[in-house]
Amino acid sequence: MKEFGCLEGWKMIYCCEEHVGEALDTIVEQYETFPVLNKLDVDNLFTSCEYCQSRAIYIVANK
Questions:
Q1: CA 51/CA 63 separation, integer angstroms
Q2: pLDDT at 44 over 90
């Protein structure tokens, strides 16, 4: 899971369609908060899913 120093306390998980449920569960379990789900613009970005290394489609975050 990626943590950005300039955004202290923010946790973001990049994930594919197959693992979006797992990423949502991770945020809820680890941070006891509602997850924020954003869809990536896949035409302009290639970022890997943190679970399987396929193309990420979503960012799941705790804020």
A1: 21
A2: no
